[in-house]
Amino acid sequence: GYGLIRISSTLNPHPPNLMFPIIILALWGILMTSSTCLRQTDLKALIAYSSVSHMGLVAAAIIVQTPWGLTGAMTLMVAHGLTSSALFALANTNYERTHTRTLLLVRGLQLAFPLMSTWWLLTNLTNMAMPPTINLLGELFIISTLFNWSTPTIIITGMGTLITATYSLYMFLMTQRGSISTQFQLLPPTHTREHLNLTLHLLPLGLLIMKPALVSGLFT
């Protein structure tokens, strides 16, 4: 994202024939990678494709080259950096105890780790841009920017948001709900350092909405 901002500023103003196909590819990538998330059976692959989907929004906003677009891109990059890192940390806590990343094999962990299940819920809601996190602010800036650039983009961004909510809910239900396998009934407990790690990820996402200029680049 940083590289796109630096390179894109040197091409300002953009030739229309250069800007249009790149934005279309970025928007199409949002739908494709989001849809790919719905078919994943590997937990870490699902989270990785989720990051690619969000970067499609960032890339499209940067190429438009408006103040709102750059502000939304900066905000969403910081927000998703924390959210994606928290999701990978949660996936790692599961893997350290079950030694598998396959979603079909690891279900019902809410019964074994109720507090960790709360972290899963909050992180997935944050991935869906739940208020009052800065994820929502970044996505609103980007969606507004793309809508002002071309009205039909609201269809693609709206579908992308809907699919994001779908696979986030799918990820939570597949890992936390259901009946736990008999081979996973004796699992080591979670540690304080793991809960502290997740707190340091999610707390800034809630607090930065009080002063979003710290990450958006709007200091005036």
TrEMBL record:
<feature type="transmembrane region" description="Helical">
    <location>
        <begin position="18"/>
        <end position="38"/>
    </location>
</feature>
<dbReference type="InterPro" id="IPR003918">
    <property type="entry name" value="NADH_UbQ_OxRdtase"/>
</dbReference>
<dbReference type="GO" id="GO:0031966">
    <property type="term" value="C:mitochondrial membrane"/>
</dbReference>
<keyword id="KW-1278">Translocase</keyword>
<dbReference type="InterPro" id="IPR001750">
    <property type="entry name" value="ND/Mrp_TM"/>
</dbReference>
<keyword id="KW-0249">Electron transport</keyword>
<keyword id="KW-0679">Respiratory chain</keyword>
<feature type="transmembrane region" description="Helical">
    <location>
        <begin position="154"/>
        <end position="175"/>
    </location>
</feature>
<keyword id="KW-0812">Transmembrane</keyword>
<dbReference type="GO" id="GO:0048039">
    <property type="term" value="F:ubiquinone binding"/>
</dbReference>
<keyword id="KW-0520">NAD</keyword>
<dbReference type="GO" id="GO:0008137">
    <property type="term" value="F:NADH dehydrogenase (ubiquinone) activity"/>
</dbReference>
<keyword id="KW-0813">Transport</keyword>
<dbReference type="GO" id="GO:0015990">
    <property type="term" value="P:electron transport coupled proton transport"/>
</dbReference>
<feature type="transmembrane region" description="Helical">
    <location>
        <begin position="70"/>
        <end position="91"/>
    </location>
</feature>
<feature type="domain" description="NADH:quinone oxidoreductase/Mrp antiporter transmembrane">
    <location>
        <begin position="1"/>
        <end position="164"/>
    </location>
</feature>
<keyword id="KW-1133">Transmembrane helix</keyword>
<keyword id="KW-0830">Ubiquinone</keyword>
<dbReference type="GO" id="GO:0042773">
    <property type="term" value="P:ATP synthesis coupled electron transport"/>
</dbReference>
<keyword id="KW-0496">Mitochondrion</keyword>
<dbReference type="Pfam" id="PF00361">
    <property type="entry name" value="Proton_antipo_M"/>
</dbReference>
<protein>
    <recommendedName>
        <fullName>NADH-ubiquinone oxidoreductase chain 4</fullName>
        <ecNumber>7.1.1.2</ecNumber>
    </recommendedName>
</protein>
<feature type="transmembrane region" description="Helical">
    <location>
        <begin position="45"/>
        <end position="64"/>
    </location>
</feature>
<comment type="function">
    <text>Core subunit of the mitochondrial membrane respiratory chain NADH dehydrogenase (Complex I) which catalyzes electron transfer from NADH through the respiratory chain, using ubiquinone as an electron acceptor. Essential for the catalytic activity and assembly of complex I.</text>
</comment>
<comment type="similarity">
    <text>Belongs to the complex I subunit 4 family.</text>
</comment>
<comment type="function">
    <text>Core subunit of the mitochondrial membrane respiratory chain NADH dehydrogenase (Complex I) that is believed to belong to the minimal assembly required for catalysis. Complex I functions in the transfer of electrons from NADH to the respiratory chain. The immediate electron acceptor for the enzyme is believed to be ubiquinone.</text>
</comment>
<keyword id="KW-0472">Membrane</keyword>
<feature type="transmembrane region" description="Helical">
    <location>
        <begin position="103"/>
        <end position="122"/>
    </location>
</feature>
<dbReference type="GO" id="GO:0003954">
    <property type="term" value="F:NADH dehydrogenase activity"/>
</dbReference>
